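User: Hi! Is it possible to get a structure for several chains at once, not just one? Here's what I have:
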Amino acid sequence: MTAALETSLPLGKAEKAAIRGDHMIVCDLVPEGGRVLDVGCENGTLLSLLVREKRVDGRGIELSQAGVNVCVARGLSVVQGDADRDLADYPDNAFDFVILSQTLQATREPKAVLQQLLRIGSNVIVSFPNFGHWKNRLQLLFRGRMPVTEYLPYSWYDTPNIHFCTIRDFVALCEEVDAKVEKAVALDRMGRKMGFSAPWWVWNLLGEQAIFLLKR
Amino acid sequence: MEVAATVIVAQRGKMTKSTITAGDRSDAEIIRVAARNEADNPSSKRVVFDAGQPLELDAGASLGPWQIAYETYGTLNAERSNAILVCHALTGDQYVASENPITGKPGWWSLLVGPGKPVDTNRFFVICANVLGGCLGTTGPASTNPDTGKPWGLELPVVTIRDMVRSQARLIDHLGIETLFAVIGGSMGGMQVLQWAVSYPERVFAALPIAAAARHSSQNIAFHEVGRQAVMADPDWAHGRYHEQGLRPSKGLAVARMAAHITYLSDAALHRKFGRNLQDREAITFGFDADFQIESYLRHQGMTFVDRFDANSYLYVTRAMDYFDIAADFDGSLARAFLHSPTRFCVMSFTSDWLFPTSESKAVVRALNASAANVSFVEVESDRGHDAFLLDEPEMFRTVDGFLTGAACARGLAVPGSAA
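Assistant: Yes, the chains can be modeled jointly so their relative placement is included. Here is the combined structure:
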C-alpha cells in the first residue's frame, strides 16, 4: 500500500489506540466534512486523522520542507510556510476550522498569529503547553533554573519555544483580541482530559497542556 | 550507415523506402529527413481539423486547417474519468513514455510515466500532444501551409501558451473527455498546466506544475532572445525560408541550444560532471578547439539538437514562453486568476533551479492560498538545476505518486489492489 493510500482508509483499532490524546480531543471538536487548515502540521499526523475520521477538506502549513514532503507523499494538501508570515495570504473566512496545534509558543508574534487565525477561520482551535504547570513552577522556584521536563525537554538556549505562556496568560490574550472562548480543556502529560471542572487557577496549576476552541 | 538506415525503417513503419535508399547517408542526415517528414506526417496519432474547424489564436488569426499530433498510453475507463494530460517542455514531444521515432531514444519522461511508475499507465489514460508551433506533427512553422503548399515558415501567426492549451482542449474534446483527472508538466509544460487550470478550471481535477512559473522572467526572455538572435544571424536561416532553399541554420540553432543548455544545469552539477577536465588531451592547446570537456559536451548537445529540431519552431516556441504572463490577463493579480478554482494543485520546484527558481513557484502558491485553493507545495532538494525534473529524483516521484493517489481517492477512482 502506498503512503498516500493510507490516508484514504478509516482507522483500524490499533491505529486508534496509538493516537495522541491531544489529537483525539482536537479531532472530537471538529465536525464532519468542514474546511480545515492545520497550521504547523508537522508530518501530517493530526491532519491525516481529521481527513480519515472526519472527512474534512484538510490543508496544512508546515515550516519544515521535510515535513511538507512527507505530508504530500501521504496524499495531504500541504504547503511549506511560516505561521508568522504566510497566514496573511489567506482570505477572510477561508476555513471552517483553523488549528494551531502545539505551535503557538514557537511563533515570533503569537498575538498577531492568533488574530490571523481568527480572521481566516470561523472557529479556531489552539493547543499549547502550559508553562504554569506546578512542575515548571517548582523547578524555577527551587532550582532557580529554566524548567526542563519530560514534556518540555529543551534547554533554554536550544528551544524552538520562544513564547511560552500559561493557561491564564492565554485566557488574557483571548480577551485582548476579542476572541470568545467556546470550550477549554486542560490535559495531563499523557494528553488525557482532566476529568473534572475547576476554576482557571486549578487548571493552570495541574494541566500540562491546554486546548481552546475560540470564536471571533 | 546502411545499418543505421535499416534501424530507422524498422522504427518507423511509415517512412518510405525512397527517402533512405542512398547508402552513403550519414546518421545525422537520416535523422534530419525523418524529422522533416514528421512535421506533416507524424508517426504518432493525430487529429486533423479542417478549414471549417479553425483554431482561434491570441494573435487574432484563425488557423485552419490544422492538426494536433499526440500519443496515448493506458486505457480510458468507462466513466472517462482517469485521463491525465502530460504537457511537454520547450523541445519535448508527444513521445513521453515511448521511443522517439526520430532519435530512437526512450520516452523523455519514461522514468515518471509508464506501467507501475508514479504516473501509472495501468491506472491512468495518459495523453501527450506535440505543442502548437512544434515540429513533430502538430501544426507549426515546419508544417505545410495548405494555401501555398510550402512550409509555413514565419507566415505562421505567433502562438502563445494559451493557444497551445486551446489546441489541447480541442483534442480532449475530440477524445470525448469532459474533465481531465490531472494535467502534469515541467518547465514550459508546467506553464501549460497553470494555463489549463486558469482557462478551463472545471475540466482540471488536479494540476501538477513542476519547475515552472506563472510568467516568464526578464532574465529568461533575455536568454531566449540570445538563442533566437543566434538562429537569425545564421545566413542559412534565409529569413525563415531555409526549407525551400535546401538550407539549414544548423550553426545558429546549435549555438542557441548550447546557451540554453547552460541554463538547464546548475553550477554545482556542471562542476561535478566536468569540472575543468580536458577533453581527450593531456594539456591545453593554446587554441580554440574544445579543450575542456564542458565545451565538447555543449558542442555535442548543440549538434545533435539541430538534427531533430526545426529552427523556426525554436523561434515560435521560445516566443510563446516569453509572452506567458497569467497575471497580466487578470489586471496584474495572479490570485484573481485562480479565484474559486475547484482544482487541486501540487506545485513543485527544485532547490538548484535558477531558471525557474523556487521563488516563482512560491508566487504561484501564494496566489493559490489567497484564493483559498487546494494546494500543496514541495521543494525538492537537488543540485541538478532545472533539468532535475527530467531526471531520477526519488523525492519528486514520491510526491507525484502521493499527490495523484490522494487526488484519485478524492475523485473516487478505484485503486488497484485495494478493497476501498
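The longest strand of chain B covers residues 66-73. The two ends of chain B are 56 Å apart (CA to CA).

User: Great, thank you!
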